[in-house]
Amino acid sequence: MAPPPATAAAAAAVRPHLLLRRGGGLLPSPHPGPATRAAAAGPARRLRLPPLRFSLSPVPKSLSSAASSHIPVRSLFTGIVEEVGRVRRLGPPLTPPSGGGGGGEAPGLDLEVETKTLLAGTQLGDSVAVDGTCLTVAAIDPAASTFTFGVAPETLRRTSLGERAAGDGVNLERALTPSSRMGGHFVQGHVDGTGEIAALRPDGDSLWVTVRAPPEILRLLVPKGFVAVDGTSLTVVSVDDEGGWFDFMLVRYTQDNIVLPNKKVGDKVNLEADILGKYVEKLLAGRVEAAVKADS
Questions:
Q1: pLDDT by residue (tens digit) across 73-92?
Q2: Is position 134 annotated as part of the catalytic site?
Q3: Residue of 6, 40, 139, 152 with catalytic role
Q4: Which of the two ends of the chain, N or C, has the fewest CB atoms closer than 10 A to its terminal CB?
Q5: Residue 273 known to be catalytic
C-alpha cells in the first residue's frame, strides 16, 4: 500500500521535537567560540581507555519477551541532536584489545568521529549517542578533535553503523545530566532495529519522510507518539501496520541540523521505539497470560 498523500492539515498538526541544542542555548553557533577551541586544542596527546567497553546491551529478538524488562539503563538521552559529526575512520582497532576475542566471532570495529564542539567537558568512559546508538568514549584525540568508540559485533548486527564510511555525517548527543532540559523524549540509545526510507516528499519548506519498519517496532508506534530515528526524537504522524510503514515531518530548521535529509530512498535508519510503549506491552502481555491461565 502506498503512503497517503501529505495534506496541509496534517502538516499544520505535526510538531516534531527537533530543536538543536548547542551548549545551553537553543540556537546553533556556526563556529566554535574561543573557549571551545581552546578546550579542543588541549594537550596534544592521545587518550585511550583500555580495555574497550560498550554500553549498548543486546536487545531481545522479541520486544515483549520476559528478558526485555532486564535491559539495563546506563545512560539516557532526549533525542535532541547536539551536533552532526563526521566519520573519520571505521575499521579494526589500531591497538589490539588485551585478552583476545572469543570463539572466532567477527571482531568489533573502532569508530572514529570528528566533532567541532563536543570535546569540551567529555571524558573517557562517557556515553554518546551516535545515530541513536549508545556508545562509550574509548579514546579522545584533542589535537585531531576526534572521539573513538568501540562498536561491538552485536551493535553492528542491530544497527546501521557498520555501513558508515569516512566522510559520512552522524548525529551526536551526549548523555543527559541532571540539569539538562528535556526537549524530546526518553531515549536509551538501545536500538530496536533498523528501518528503510521508503519516501521523501517535500511539502513547502518541510519534508515528509516515510519509513518501512518491522512489525515488532510498528506495533509500538502510535500517531502523535514518539520514535527515535537515527537518534532524533520525532513525532509520529501516521502508522500503517498492514502496509508496514510510518511517517513524520521534518521542519526546515531540523533538516539543516540532522543527517536524515541527506539520506536517500532505500537507506537504512536506526529505530528506537518509546520505552513507555514497551512497558505497556509487557504489562498487558502479563495480564493476558494470567487471564488465560485462570480460565484453563
A1: 457 898 999 999 999 999 99
A2: yes
A3: 152
A4: C
A5: no
Answer yes or no: 40 catalytic. no
DSSP string, 230-262: TTEEEE--EEETTTTEEEEEE-HHHHTTSSGGG
Give the chain's end-to-end CA distance (angstroms, integer). 40
pLDDT tens, position by position, 11-62: 444 444 433 443 443 333 344 444 444 444 445 555 554 443 433 333 333 3
Q: How many CB atoms lie within 10 A of CB 141?
A: 19
- Kindly give, in sequence order, each residue whose CB lies less than 8 Å from that of residue 233, ignoring residues fewer than 6 positions away: 16, 17, 18, 78, 79, 80, 183, 184, 185, 187, 226
190 is an active site residue: yes
> What distances in angstroms separate CA 90 from CA 26, 32, 87, one per listed residue?
31, 26, 7
Cα atoms found within 13 Å of the Cα of residue 14, Cβ hemisphere only = 25
Cβ–Cβ under 8 Å, residues 20 and 257 = yes
> CB of 199 within 8 A of CB of 248?
no
Residue 8 annotated in active site: no
- Cross-strand pairs, 137: 149
Beta bridge partners of 206: 203
Q: For cell 554518546, name the residue.
A: 128
Peptide bond into 51 cis (omega under 30): yes
Give the whole-angstrom CA distance, residue 131 versus residue 239. 22
Please report, as a single letter, which amino acid is at residue 145.
Answer: S
Q: Which among 133, 148, 159, 235 is annotated as catalytic?
A: 235
In sequence order, the 6+-apart residues with CB closer than 8 A to the CB of 223 are 236, 237, 238, 239
Helix (H, G, I), strand (E, B) or coil at 79: coil
C-alpha–C-alpha distance, residues 63 and 67, integer Å:
8
**Which position among 77, 186, 246, 248 bears the catalytic label?**
77
